[in-house]
Amino acid sequence: MLTKSSEYAIRALIYVQIRNWEQKRPGVGEIANEIEAPEAFSAKILQTLTRHKLLESMKGRGGGFFFSENEEPLTLYKVIHVMEGDACFHKCGIGLKNCTDKNPCPLHEQYKVVRDEFYSIVKKETVQSLAKRIIEGDAVLNRLIK
Fold first, then answer.
1. What is the pLDDT at residue 143?
2. pTM of the full predicted structure?
3. Which CATH number does the domain 4-135 belong to among 2.30.30.280, 3.40.640.10, 2.30.42.10, 1.10.10.10?
4. How far apart are CA 18 and CA 14, in angstroms?
5. Mean confidence (pLDDT) of the chain
């Protein structure tokens, strides 16, 4: 349902949040390694997130990526919107250009339910709520066995 850019962006932001709570600012290499993504691609994603003010960065000693102290929780919707726009919340489940309620594809009614529920989830869930689940041991961010 999401592009690789959005998947990696969400994973990167969760990892940065966890490390920030540990009073650390991870760099691109560390983030890419921990979210199991190519480093060059991760760098581009982090650059996009920083450019859109979803994340801050600092160069040099003690530098890395971090969230501003007084920021509101960051919804997954906002991340997805920055990375790929709103298309995934409106597109057809089998990729037809003209799939609508009046002109549905064979999967339309079932896919619409899933798509609408996904939209509801990403509007509610935040990077911080997902990071908290990982900290509490209720979820993982990467493979347990490498």
1. 67
2. 0.92
3. 1.10.10.10
4. 6
5. 94
